[in-house]
User: What shape does this take?
Amino acid sequence: MKVKVDLDLCQGHSVCLGECPEVFDVVEQEDGYPQVVVLIEEPPEELRKKVMSAAMFCPNRVITVED
Amino acid sequence: MSEAAKAELKRPPIVSGASKEGGHMPEFEKDYCAFISRAHAEGGELAEFDFGGQETILMSGPDAQEVFFRTPDEVFSQAQAYQVMVPVFGPGVIFDATPERCKTQLKIQVDALRYQNMKNYASVIAQEVEDWISDWGDEGEVEILHAFHELTMHTATHCLLGKEFRHSMTEEFFSLYKDLQAGVQAISFVDPYMQQPVFAARDRARERLEEIISELVATRRASGKEYGDALETFMTGTYKDGSHLTDTELTGLIIATMFAGHHTSSGAGAGTLLEIAKHPEYAAELKAELDEIYKDGEEISHASMRAIPKLESFINEVLRLHPPLVILMRRVMEDVEYNGYLIEKGKTVAVSIYESHINPEYFPDPHKFDPHRQEPERMFAYIPFGGGRHKCAGNAFAILQLKAIFSALLRRYDFELVGPAEDYEDERANMTIRPKDPCILRYKRRTD
Ligand code: HEM
Ligand code: SF4
Assistant: This one.
């Protein structure tokens, strides 16, 4: 499983961090909104459910998961 | 872009039927949905019209809309396009701030709406709904436009600005707020500083609101208490140099947040309830879903509302057919090429949310209300909250709020129309879409 994020769309709502802190962090930026940082690009299988929740509940559809 | 390069490019087609005075503005003001559809049909992806002297290029379809949303602010400027909001928000706020200060203000605003803060909001909203319906009795009639205006005013202020603010609000606050809203309409885009009674009322309202809000903020500062709400986030937010928002900026930011969140939520709430009354068959599905989720007497909370799929799809369909914001704009700051066409510096680009949502390619039988529709895979086809870096900062809050309201309401009451369905058509005035006023529904306590 591979996690991708589209930073053009991220506004730092932090839903991803709430759903799966193992994989997502949200960090302050020099300018503008905080943004998501992917901590593990290829997370282990046991995190699949949490990663999928993060992707599903991100209000901006920033996160995509490829197999 | 060099003159030679520009000469190579085609110009977007110009929509027919401009009047000598005001260009397409008169037609736009009469029924902008019909006008936009005509412009789209004539021009395709790009169609230029004269918006009261401002050359405006309508960008239609997901490809063009994606470019609209992804192009950075330095090229498609939101602030320059929304100068009409400056007298509403006040000097130095958002669209009137330097780009750097504006970015910090937006960040402080979004901080207040983050996931961590949202958890408390759900129960506050549920409580407001309980208060609202506490004297409804077993059955009766309710005018829902006014009711939602008031309810969402209460919830927004309660969640964002705290309990004391919510309970110190008076009739005066409501009427001032109305004056501010009336100050934004199609003619404001021509010149928001014209000598007009609506603009004078807007300015008086802005001044008085600032007094009221400054007083509340001063009381808080003096009290030294901690509140853990959005107002606190606003009061403690800092610029890069470590300074805080001034009182004027703070007031302006509160108005800006209320302004972005209030009429949109209120319209979406009324629109949702109206569709529920119009479609008893779908209402039954929603009630069954909610009864199942709350069957053990579970409280309405952030956790219980995380996934309510049928209600969410229903709300999505309401926002598709009745988008609370219908047209978004940006000012073009540099020449841009799109598919061989020139989008020239100084013009305005626009996206119509409504028009995007009735595209039959993505929404078959588009005028039919169908909550079972699949959201299209294609990004930027369904855009009730806009997209890209300026996507609605309150979108998660807005959906949470609607879910909380209807979780509480539908477990108690059934709703039906009191007149023929034709009496409940949408009204398209002041650049918004909403049910025609008055919009009266009959409610009955559920006995099933
Ligand atoms: C159903 C309800 C709502 C709808 C349909 C809606 C829609 C939108 C849209 C389309 C935009 C983008 C404007 C543009 O691109 O020019 C926007 C921006 C915004 N909205 Fe909402 N909104 C809703 C509720 C709310 C609420 C409840 C809040 C706050 C409490 C809010 C706060 C904002 C803010 C702060 C922005 C500006 C974001 C930025 O420019 O970076 N909205 N909204
Ligand atoms: S990825 Fe989505 S949920 Fe996470 S911070 Fe960005 S916008 Fe928010």
